[in-house]
Amino acid sequence: MEKEGPVRILFVIDQFTSSHAGTEGQLLQLLSNLPAGQFQPELLVLRPSSYVEAGKMPCKTEVLGTSRLFSLKTWLAMFKFAQRKKQEGIALCHVFFNDSSIICPPVFSLVGIPTLISRRDMGYWYTPKYLWVLRRTARFVSGVVANSAAVKQVTAEKEGVPAARISVIYNGYSASTDELSPLTPEERSSILSGLGLPVDGRFVVLVANLREIKRIGDAINAIGTVRNSVPDSHLVLIGGGNQEPYRELAVSLGVADYVHFLGERSDVRNILRAMDAGLLCSESEGYSNAIVEYMQARLPVVASNVGGNSEAVEHGVSGYLFPRGDIKQLAAYLVCILRNEDGSAQQMGECGHRKAHRRHGLQTMIDSHAALYSRVLSSRLGAPDVEVR
Asked: Which UniProt keywords apply (predicted)?
């Protein structure tokens, strides 16, 4: 498609509050790394946030100013915005999060701008009202980007988007050799002591915001059982959210001294290098960013067998999958990894590391999106899915 200058793409998201969150982090990578000679990104957020107001975004950013999904005022404001963007030369819209994916496709279709939507979870937010609307706005969607085959399947089934219009593009991450190389014992001790952790302990890390859907309580319950077999084991929790109920649970179970709350961190990668196992207990997952970070850090992974987790973790090869909520099995797998009697933990970590490098390189993700954008703009929607294995 011949066009003077780079193609202008508008990205839309309900709200952008942190660069460390999964969806926001992937969007930020797109905004920062799409080839400048080919694409010129802009961003619209429905609701303001301190992060956006601080001017941290790498491209032109606007706030809609009204965001109630079922308000006529919101739809009128979006229509006027879409008209202006069409006049300014926006050629494509790519939408993230729920409300934006309902309002943008029909509105931007009216002004002649094709719209892609992203799906990155198993639809835990679906309600009968949302699904009713989504099934009717699906005909305005030019394509869907799913971050796992599991998400693709649930999107097609629930929202009625034809599977041929859903492309699987796995999450992408930058990785330097220095950051991801194995630590020396001295380097590991330095990291642990800097975090206030015992240097001779063995550590299970769980990276997730402290929300009910992440089932943090399962991890806290399991660590007591794990310590019966591995007395120097500890649980390290990294993520924002209300710690109080989980601290109370740890106290009630008598494991408060072995559960460490680090809060939201910007140095997660470095911390992971000093850990022994990565854990995810979630009720639902599309494709976990945390699991990829664990694999990059050469950690064997124990994860609930939900959503796209089975696409990320090869059971018995790069880690273990346990039935959601099965604390006994979860603990048993952690004990197996921490004891490491046959040396398989290191082999699992290396296997995961190779897979992360192959599937989740940042450039792979960027190139896959660029190819999809070009395909949509060329109206070749019947081409094979963009799918990176």
From this structure: Glycosyltransferase, Transferase
Q: Are 296 and 175 in contact (CB under 8 A)?
A: yes
pLDDT digits (tens, 9 = 90+) for 229-243: 999 999 999 999 999
| Alpha carbon distance 27, 51 (integer Å) | 14
Determine how many CB atoms are found less than 10 A away from the CB of residue 13.
22
Considering Cα of 166, then 368, then 79, then 104, what sign does the dihedral take? positive
Q: What are phi and psi of 302, to 5 degrees?
A: -120, 120
CA distance 334 to 314: 16
CATH of the structural domain 7-172+361-377, one choice from 3.40.50.2300, 3.40.50.360, 3.40.50.150, 3.40.50.2000: 3.40.50.2000
Q: Distance (Å, rounded) from C-alpha 4 to C-alpha 380?
A: 21
Enumerate helices (H) and strands (E) in the chain, giving the number of each: 16, 13
- Amino acid 179: pLDDT: 52
The predicted model scores a pTM of 0.80
Looking at the chain, the whole-number percentage of residues with pLDDT higher than 90 is 75
Give the number of C-alpha atoms closer than 13 A to the C-alpha of residue 339, restricted to the C-beta side: 13
Q: How do the domains of the chain map onto residue ranges?
A: 7-172+361-377, 177-359
Q: In CATH, what number does 177-359 get?
A: 3.40.50.2000
Q: Order of strands across the sheet with 39-45?
A: 60-63, 39-45, 7-13, 90-96, 115-119, 143-146, 166-168
Quick: pLDDT tens for 305-360: 998 999 999 999 999 999 999 999 999 999 999 999 888 999 999 999 999 888 88
Reference 6, options 68, 90, 62; nearest CA is 90
CB atoms within 10 A of CB 185: 8
7-172+361-377 shares its CATH topology with 177-359: yes
Looking at residue 234, what is its pLDDT? 98
pLDDT digits (tens, 9 = 90+) for 32-87: 999 999 999 999 999 998 988 888 899 999 999 877 888 889 999 999 999 999 99
Give the pLDDT score at 381.
44
CA distance 163 to 153: 8
CA distance 94 to 114: 9
pLDDT at 387 (0 to 100): 47
